[in-house]
Amino acid sequence: MNIAVVGLQWGDEGKGKVIDYFAKDVDVVVRFQGGNNAGHTVVIGEKKFVFHLIPSGILRNNKISVIGNGVVIDPKVLLEEITFLKKQGIYISPRNLKVSLLAHVIMPYHKLMDSFREEERLARIGTTKRGIGPCYADKISRCGIRMVDLINPRVFSLKLKDNLREKNLLFRNVYGRKGISFKKIFTEYSYYAKLLKPYCCDILDFFYKNRRLNFLFEGAQGTFLDIDWGTYPFVTSSNTVSLNAVLGSGFSGIKIDRVVGVAKAYTTRVGEGPFPTEIKGKRGGYFRSRGKEFGATTKRPRRCGWLDLVLLREAVKINGITEVVITKLDILDELKKIKVCVGYRNSKVKPYIFSHLKKISPVYKTVKGWCSSIANIRSYNKLPREAKKYILFIEESIKRRVSHISVGQLRDAIISK
Ligand code: IMP
C-alpha cells in the first residue's frame, strides 16, 4: 500500500504529525519537492522535532527516509538537521537516510538572489528567503548544481566557476551589490560534500530493488502554493500536489493507492497573496494565539481566517484525494459561532486563477460551536454533537470521507473516525 500525504490549503496544515502517524504502516518515507522552506513539526512527549528537509518518518524505527530528485537541498541545513537528530538519540546513517544524486543544491548565491529579488519587486511574494525559487530556476535553466556534481570536485569547481561568472555580473551590475568569491564557497561546500557523500545514492536503483515495500510520499507546503495550481505568483517554486509524488521522488514505476489530504479546521497562510476568508486585524488573533500560528521556518505570524470549502473542494479534485485528515479542530473549542465559507459570490472564481482579483467575496454559513475542550478526546463518538456536525458538514461539502481528526500537538492526540 503506497500513500501520498499532501496539504489542501496554503501549507502549515499539520502534515508533519499526520505523516508521522501514517509512517508507522510503511517502510519508506520520501520527500519529493520543496526544500528547507518547509517546517514539519512532530511532538513526542516532552520533545518537539521540527524538520525542514529530512522526512518526518525518520522518527520511526526501521524506516528508510528518502530525499528525492525533486527536492532542493541546502547542504548546511541538512547536516545541521542530521547532527540535531543524532543528538536527540535518533538513529541516522546511510542505511536509513538516502539522498538522491539528482537533487539540486541550494547555493549561497540562490539565497542572496531570493532576497535581492524580493527587495526589488513591486509586488513582493513574501518568500522564506531560503533560495528555493532561484535554485529551481537554475535547475530549469540547466545551470544548477546537483548532489552528483557537488561530490565530484572537478565538476563542482567547473560548474561553480561558470555560475559565479554570471551571478557576480548580475549582483554587481543589476543589483549594485558585491560579488562573491569562488574560493570561500568552494572550500565550504567541498567540506559539506565530503560529509554528505555517504548518504547520496542512485535513487532509481534503490526504488527498483525495494519496489515491493510500502511507500509514503511526504508533501511539503500545500496545494495553493503549487507552482501550477496555486495562487500564482504567490506560490512556491515546485509542484506541491500529489501528481508530483511520483516524478519528484524519482520512482516512476509506482501506483499510489491512498492520497490523504490534510486540512486545518480553519485557514492560514504566510506571505503575500489572496486569502478570501482572512480575518483582518485583531480578530484574527484568536487563531494566531490559540493555534500558535507562527511560521515553523521563519517565525513570521501567519495570516488567519475561516475554513474555505471552495479551496478544499478544488484541492480534492486537483490531487485526486481519497480521504481527508482535519487538524487543529481543538483550536475552535472556545468559539460560540463558527463561520465556514461555502462559496464565493462570483461562483466562476477559482482559487488558482483568482490571484489578479482584488476582492473575492466569500459566502458564509454560520454553525454552532461546541464551547468545551476536546483535546483529551480519543474516540469520535465522544466528540460533542456540534463538533461531529462540523466534520459531517465538511465531508458533505467536499464529498470525501474525513478519516482522522487531530485534536492536539501530541503524537496520540488523533481520532480515527
Ligand atoms: P518560497 O517557497 O520561499 O519561495 O516562498 C514562496 C511562498 O510560499 C511564500 O508565500 C512562503 O511564505 C510560502 N511557503 C513556502 N514554504 C512554506 C511552508 O512550508 N508553509 C507555508 N508557506 C510556505
Please describe the structure with a list of short key phrases separated by commas or semicolons.
31% helix, 417 residues, 12 helices, three-stranded mixed beta sheet, Adenylosuccinate Synthetase, Chain A, domain 3, binds inosinic acid, alpha/beta, 3 domains, 19 strands, Adenylosuccinate Synthetase, Chain A, domain 1
Can you put this structure into words, describing what you see?
The longest helix has 22 residues, at 153-174. The chain is of the alpha/beta class and 417 residues long. It has a 10-stranded mixed sheet with strand order 9-7-5-2-10-1-11-15-18-19, sandwiched between helices. A 3-stranded mixed sheet has the order 14-16-17. Strands 3-4 form a two-stranded antiparallel sheet. It starts with a strand and ends with a strand. Helix 3 (108-120) packs across helix 4. The mean pLDDT is 94. It contains 12 helices and 19 strands. The protein folds into 3 domains: 3-103 and 205-259, Adenylosuccinate Synthetase, subunit A, domain 1 (Adenylosuccinate Synthetase, Chain A, domain 1); 104-196, Adenylosuccinate Synthetase, subunit A, domain 2 (Orthogonal Bundle), CATH 1.10.300.10; 263-416, Adenylosuccinate Synthetase, Chain A, domain 3 (Alpha-Beta Complex), CATH 3.90.170. It has helices at 15-23, 75-87, 108-120, 132-141, 147-150, 153-174, 182-196, 203-209, 244-249, 285-290, 309-319, 385-398, and strands spanning 3-7, 28-31, 40-44, 47-51, 64-67, 72-73, 97-100, 104-105, 200-201, 215-218, 258-264, 267-269, 303-305, 307-308, 323-327, 337-344, 362-368, 402-406, 414-416. The relative contact order is 0.16. The radius of gyration is 21 Å and the shape is globular. Helix content is 31%, strand content 19%. Inosinic acid (IMP) is lined by residues 11-12, 37-39, 125-128, 130, 132-133, 220-221, 225, 234, 236-237, 270-271. Inosinic acid (IMP) binds at residues 11-12, 37-39, 125-128, 130, 132-133, 220-221, 225, 234, 236-237, 270-271.
